[in-house]
Every structure is written in structure tokens, then in C-alpha cells.
């Protein structure tokens, strides 16, 4: 059991485990409601002495897949997601995440920060200017139309690639894509985002695990927190509805903008 207490140059202490458990719980709650839990969890892992950025990203995926499993199952017990959009998006999201994880080991994330920051600002402004957006479903295409399916494939591929590459805000990007592009309400979009996000986490892990990038002891701590937070967050979102999810969405996107903006300007 020595590997649970020491992994390479990283000493896994009880204090560290408890801190990561707390970070995982908060991240799991945020992810379950609207996505963006990586805003909490990934920086917490990056602060672990001796961990590399790729190890932190890979370990973050282990915690995230545990949380998205808990929240997705909770949503599925109460909310029926649109399979015609969720399944295509999940398939391409998994493939995109594998590709993104590969690119993450080759290129510095700073290359992509300006693009992501600009996209987040645009998302926040768009959501603020449309107060009725996502409060009720208004599908723009026929549920079983070719365009409905094609856009779902594209959303999954692009956001899956981003999740494998960086990660923070993936759930938020999925939610706003399902709401603003296809026309789902925030509650159903959040439920669908959990399923697709599960696929992106799996895709990234399919690359990271065989290449030895996951720190399992740390991943177990954030995974445990994610499961608890994911279960509580999903039940909260279901109980309070789309209006609540929209408010949390704006808060999380604003926090992402401030965090990425600070990193970019520093």
C-alpha cells in the first residue's frame, strides 16, 4: 500500500488528501449544476508540490469522471435527456477528448488561452443580453432532423477536444452550446452535458492512463469528493430548475473569465 502514501516525488499526506477531497466536493457540486468544476479542482491539483501540469490534468479527469457518473445517474432518474442530441455528441466528444489529450502533451496550454478567454466573454455577454435564454426549451431544428444530429456531432467533437486539452469550463461550454445553438432549456442542457462530459473524461483517460500520467492516490481523493458533490449538485439543480442553473452558470463563467484573464495577463 506504499503507493497510496507516496507517488514518485509526490508525498501524499492526510492533510493533502483532505484538501483535495474538499476541492473535489465543491468542484463536483459546480459541475453537476452547470459545469466548470475544473475551475476549482485543476488549480488545487496544480498546487501539489512535485506534480507536473500533465499529471494534474490527467488526475483531474479521474476525479471528474467519478463526479459526472454520480450526477448523470441522478439526472437520469428525474430528467429525460434528448437522446438524438446526447448520443451523437457523446461519441464525437470521446474521440475529440482523446485527440485533445494527445495535443496537451505536445503544446503549451498558453497557446489556447486567448481564444478560450474570448469565447467565455462572448458566452457571458450573450447570456446576459438574453434573460429568457434557456428558461424554456425552444428547439431550433426538428428533433430528428439531419441538422439537429450534425450540430450535435460537431458540438461533441469541438468541446471534447477542448476537454482533453485543458478542461475547465467544459460543462459550461456544453450547456451554452445545447441552450443557444440547439435550443434546450438550462436544466435539460445541464443533464445532457453531464453525459457528454462523462464521455470526454473517459476519452482523455483512455490516453492518459496507459501513458502513466494519472496520480492514483490524489485521483482517489478528488474522485470521492466529486461523487458526493455531484450527487448533491444534481439534486439541487433538479429541485430549483432552469432559472437557478442560469444564475450559477453566469457566476461560474464570470469566475472562469477572471481566472483565465489573470493567468493570461500575469
From TrEMBL:
TM ranges: 56-75, 87-105, 111-129, 150-167, 214-238, 244-265
InterPro entries per UniProt: TM_pro_TauE-like, TSUP
Main location (coarse class): membrane
Name of the molecule in the record: Probable membrane transporter protein
Domain of life: Bacteria
Subcellular location: Cell membrane
Membrane topology value: Multi-pass membrane protein
UniProtKB keywords: Cell membrane, Membrane, Transmembrane, Transmembrane helix, Transport
Family according to the record: Belongs to the 4-toluene sulfonate uptake permease (TSUP) (TC 2.A.102) family.
